Amino acid sequence: MKRIFMNQKLNDWVKEMAELCKPDDVYFCNGGKVEYDFMINKLLVAGMAIRLNPKKRPNSYLFRSHPSDVARLEKATIISSENKDDAGPTNIWIAPDELKRKMRALYDGCMKGRTMFVIPFSMGPVGSPLSELGVEITDSPYVVANMHIMTRVISDIPADKDFIPCMHSVGVGGGNAMWPCAPIEDKYISHFPEEKLIWSYGSGYGGNALLGKKCLALRIASYMAFQQGWMAEHMLILRLTNPQGRRYHIAGAFPSACGKTNLAMMNPSLPGWKVECIGDDIAWIRRGPDGKLYAINPENGFFGVAPGTSYATNPNAMETIKENTIFTNCALTGDGDVWWEGIDGEIPLSLTDWQGNPWKPGNNGEAAHANARFTAPAAQCPVICKDWENPTGVPIDAFLFGGRRESAVPLVFQARDWNHGVFLGSILASEKTAADLDKKIGELRYDPMAMLPFCGYNMGDYFGHWLKIGDILKGDAPPIFYVNWFRKDAAGKFMWPGYGHNSRALKWICDRIDGHVSAEETAIGLLPKIEDLDLSGVNVSGETMRELLRPHRALRRHEIPLIAQHYKKFGSRLPERLARQFIEFVAALG
Ligand code: OXD
Ligand code: MN
Fold first, then answer.
1. Which atom of ligand 1 is nearest to the CA of 450?
2. Is 16 in the same domain as 88?
C-alpha cells in the first residue's frame, strides 16, 4: 500500500525506515473503528488474541506475552544525549552514533515477512496548543490496537507541523510465534532527546512498545519542557469538589505501584465530596495567560495494573474495564472472562494462567502476572471529568508527592514554600521493608518526583528546572504537599484505612489552600493539627492518629546519610539551593 502524507519529513522518514526494515507491506493507520476491528481480527486469526465472552466482557480481548517480555526494561532504557553528563547519573547512556550503528544493524531486515504500520497520533486533545504530535512505526498489530486506546490516532500530520518520530520493532530472535520479541541482550528502548527521536527494538510490552506514553510523553517531553519552560510530569490529575461546589485541581506524583490510579478515580468517604479523574499517569503543565499553571493529560486511555484492582479497591476502574478493553497477561476463567489476584469474589473453579496453563489455588506462582495490565479508554471511566479533554487544561491548585513509607513519614504535611517542596520531591522515596519498624528506616529507593525512570536528561538539571519554575510563578506557585497512605504498626498492619478515606487528607489540603486552618511548624514541614482533620466515621484511634501525624525527627535522622549519598551522585549539577535545603533539614532534625 502506498500513501503520500502532507508532511514531507514524515514521507522521508517512512521511506527510510521501510528501506531499512524491509517489511513485506506498509499499512497507514487512520485511527478508525474499522481499522481497530481489522487489527483485532488479524490477531484473532493468528491465534495471538483470545476473544473474551461477549456476554461477560463485550468487545474485549486477552493477550499473553512471552515470559521474557512482561514489563518495562529499565536496564535497556537509554538516554542517548550528545554528552554523557546531559543524561546524568540516573540514566544509562550510550553515544548516539554508537547506539544508532548497533540498532541499525538490528533493524536491518527485521520486518521481513511482516507488515509495517505507520501510526500518526496526538498526545493531548487534537488541535490543543498544549498537545504534541508523534508518529509510531511498528510491526506489531497489538501495538496498533493499544495505541488506538492510549493515544488519539489521526490520519496525517499537517505539512507545517513537526512530529516526534517513534520507531518500534518487536525484533527477531526471541519470544515465540504468538509473541515475537528479541533476546534480552538485543533489546533497546532508546531516546535521543536533542533530536526528539525514539528508537525501540526487541520488546512488545507496555511502555517499551506503546511509545507515546513513557518514551514520548515523559522522557522526550521532559527534555522539551526543560528547554521550553514547561513541565512533563509522572502525575495524576484530579478534580475535587466540596459540598459547596468549590473545585480544586490537584496533580500528584507517586512512584509506580503506590496507588496512583486508585487515587485518581477515588470515591471519597467524606459525605458530599466528589473526585473526578482527569488523568492517572502523566501531566503536561504550562503557565496560562493568568500566570497560573494549567495541566492536561496527554493520554487517551488507562494502561493500569490489573492485580489488586477490585470493586473494593477501585470500583471506577472496574466499571471502566467492563467492555472495549484489552487485557494482557491476566488469567482466563472457564466461562471466558479475565481473572487476577485481588479481584472480587471467589476464585473460579476453572482457571488458565497467564501462560496458558491450567491453574489451581496452591499452584506455584500467580494465575495473572504481577504486571498484568488492562488497556481501556479513559472516556469509559464513570468519574471522568467533563473537562478532561479541555484544550486549555485545568488550573492546578496543589501538587502532591507521595511514596510507600511504612514508618516515619506522616499521613500528610505541607512544604514550607516552593523550594522546600522541590526538596521534598527530590528526596521522594519508597520503602521496601522496614526490618525493625521501631528503630530503623527500611531500604529506600529514591525516586525524585517519581521521575527516576522517566527523566530524559540530567536529574540535577531537572531539579534546577523545578526551582526555576517556582521563581517564574512567584506568588502563583501552587502549594506542595507530601502524603503517605502506607504507614504500618509494629505488627505490620496498615495504620490508615486508605482508599476513599484519603479524601480526608485531601480535604485538609483544600482547607490549607483556602487558608481555613493553620498548621504546626515542625522540622519536616507544616503538619496538620489533629482537630483539623475530618475523621467522622473513620475507625482509627486517637493514639494511632497522633502517631500518623508525628514528625518523627529521630527516625528521619537515619535518612541523612542516605540523602547525602543520593545527592552526591549529582555532583556540580545539584542546585545549590537544594544543598542548602538539605543542610537546613539536617539542622532542624537536631
Ligand atoms: C506505569 C509505571 O506503568 O509507572 O505507569 O510503571
Ligand atoms: Mn506510571
1. 4
2. yes
Q: Do 417 and 306 lie in a common domain?
A: no
* Domain end point (choices 229, 249, 280): 229
Cα–ligand 1 centroid distance for 257 (angstroms):
8
If one counts the domains in the chain, the total is: 3
Helix (H, G, I), strand (E, B) or coil at 250: strand
- CATH number for the domain spanning 529: value is 3.90.228.20
Residue 317 has a pLDDT of: 98
Burial profile 191-225: b = 16 or more Cβ within 10 angstroms, e = fewer: bbbeebbbbbbbbbbbbbbbbbbbbbbbbbbbbbb
Pocket mutation for ligand 1, best pick of 256, 282, 447 (most atoms within 8 Å of C-beta): 256
User: Structural domain of residue 407, as residue ranges?
Assistant: 397-589
- DSSP letter for 258, please: S
Identify whether 432 is part of a domain. yes
Using the CB atoms, write b or e for 480-509: b if 16+ within 10 Å. Answer: bbbbbbbbbeeeeeebbeebbbbbbbbbbb
Atom of ligand 1 at shortest distance to CA of 305?
A: 3
| CA–CA separation, 555 and 407 (whole Å) | 8
Q: Looking up cell 466515621, which residue turns up?
A: 537
Q: What is the pLDDT of residue 364?
A: 83
- The neighbour count for residue 305, using CB atoms within 10 Å, is 21
Distance 255 CA to ligand 1 centre (A): 8
* Cα gap 410→121, rounded to integer Å: 42
Q: What is the pLDDT of residues 267-321, one digit of tens each?
A: 999 999 999 999 999 999 999 999 999 999 999 999 999 999 999 999 999 999 9
Same domain as 187, residue 43: yes
**pTM for the model:** 0.97
Residue 287 to residue 285: CA distance in whole angstroms: 7
Does 357 have pLDDT greater than 50?
yes
Please name every residue paired with 326 in a beta bridge, in sequence order, or none if there are none.
Answer: 61, 375
- Residue 582: partners with Cβ closer than 8 Å, 6 or more residues away: 423, 563, 564, 567
Task: Classify strands 115-123 and 25-28 as parallel, antiparallel or unpaired.
Answer: parallel
